[in-house]
Amino acid sequence: MRNVLQTWTSAQVRAAEEPLLAAGVPLMGRAAFALHVWVADALRDRRGTLTGARVVVLVGPGNNGGDALHAGALLARRGVEVHAVLTADRVHQGGLTALRAAGGRVLRLERLEDAAALAVGADLVLDGVLGIGSDGSGLRGAAGALVEAIVQRGRPYVVAVDVPSGLGVDDGRREGVVLDADLTVSFGTLKPGLVLPPGARAAGRVEHVDLGLEPAGAPAVVRLEAADVADLWPVPAPDAHKYTRGVVGVVAGSRAYAGAAVLTTSGAVRAGVGMVRYLGDVADLVVAAHPEVVVGHGRVQAWVFGPGVSPDDAGQRRRIEYAVQHVRERGEPAVVDAGALDLLPPHVGPHAVITPHAGELARLLGQRGEAVDRADVEAEPLRWARRAHELTGATVLLKGSVTVVVGARGAVYAQADAPPWLATAGAGDVLAGLLGALLAGRAQAVQEDPSLAAALAAAAALVHGRAAHRANPGGPVAAQAVADALPGTIAELLGA
């Protein structure tokens, strides 16, 4: 994969900065210059000119405050009215001196309401309160009170320095007070909290400034880009036949939830797998919708089981147990969704991908002794997805507005490709079928390298989200429309 968006932890960033700082590389100067350029562009977009614009800089005690002060000095020299509000007793003295020399004004945080009113009335607020040391517990003390006062008055346009202050840099956690940004300018490397939920929503648009850092070790969190799909997708060779292209077995649906079977097989068929083999009680409806689907037992290279299945459905339970036996004994990859999550064995390998939403993951973890509810999972999705991987051995695809995937060898992906309209009944069934097709097409490779399952799961989330956009750009979308948009979406991604 050549185009992935990579993020690195605060510890990795600090370690990468040390040799450059020791060699005298002016990292702060470079960061401040780039930051002032982005702020200047934002001001021009918002008001057409820099002259007479007002920027309020919120300054904390660390290097982010220094970056913000130096950027403020550069803006002041270009005709911007810059006010720095100091939220700590100790701030970067070099930046403070530079700002004053450029004509910037400095206020200590003594009259909270006055400072909040100044910020709300500004054309732009530059958030330099906290940096990469933030653990996600939110802003406290005077800085927290100031941000609360600002938000209560009406949040201004905010540019965050590196990360929104108070956000969990390494995990996206947000508790307490966080000043949400419209634009985040991240230096050196992108940080995991900018792409992970729930923090990703606080970051706004994210821009990266390369400072020449070379972090050691694997990236903490990866996001696939459109061009990465071609590296992962099982494109048929000229001499391909249906068995070399993959056969996916689907155990889904019931008379009560027949649509789940139709949608799951739709996702698999439209994704271009060699064959879909259906086992279940609504074969008549599945074949009526997709006459190419084959009904009954036979050769299978990957499985999808669980959509639209109740764990107390005796017939489907037997079929799922049959499929699980193949997954455990033959190493056949699988997608374990919805009703099958309650039937998951105590331990499986990463070639099995579980696809819960937050509530389902909380229930699965509870069955394994963890005291966790849906709200806990939504507050710290990476933590609990990792815990589920540890407890089950499976690759975990946690569905949400940002889909988090955790797999073997520390692989973590965060995909944010879908529109909010995709939060609709049946969308998960289409995703399950789509992912099953991918696993079937790459079954041998997944058996050889189980960590590949996580990358394929992330690719499926990307394609699924793109198909939703294609089905009806900017508006409501139904699950079947997403399935119908898969062939064109895949062709476009492979062509790109």
From TrEMBL:
AMP binds at K399, G400, S401, V402, T403, G428. The keyword Isomerase applies. Its cofactor is Mg(2+); K(+). Keywords: ATP-binding, Isomerase, Lyase, Metal-binding, Multifunctional enzyme, NAD, NADP, Nucleotide-binding, Potassium. Residues 1-219 form the YjeF N-terminal domain. CDD domains: YXKO-related. It catalyses: (6S)-NADPHX + ADP = AMP + phosphate + NADPH + H(+); (6S)-NADHX + ADP = AMP + phosphate + NADH + H(+); (6R)-NADHX = (6S)-NADHX; (6R)-NADPHX = (6S)-NADPHX. Residues 225-493 form the YjeF C-terminal domain. InterPro entries: Carbohydrate_kinase_pred_CS, CARKD, Nnr, Ribokinase-like, YjeF_N_dom, YjeF_N_dom_sf. The keyword Lyase applies. (6S)-NADPHX binds at N63, N64, G65, G66, D67, D162, A260, G308, H357, D429. Catalyzes the dehydration of the S-form of NAD(P)HX at the expense of ADP, which is converted to AMP. Together with NAD(P)HX epimerase, which catalyzes the epimerization of the S- and R-forms, the enzyme allows the repair of both epimers of NAD(P)HX, a damaged form of NAD(P)H that is a result of enzymatic or heat-dependent hydration. Catalyzes the epimerization of the S- and R-forms of NAD(P)HX, a damaged form of NAD(P)H that is a result of enzymatic or heat-dependent hydration. This is a prerequisite for the S-specific NAD(P)H-hydrate dehydratase to allow the repair of both epimers of NAD(P)HX. Homotetramer. Belongs to the NnrE/AIBP family. Belongs to the NnrD/CARKD family. This is Bifunctional NAD(P)H-hydrate repair enzyme.
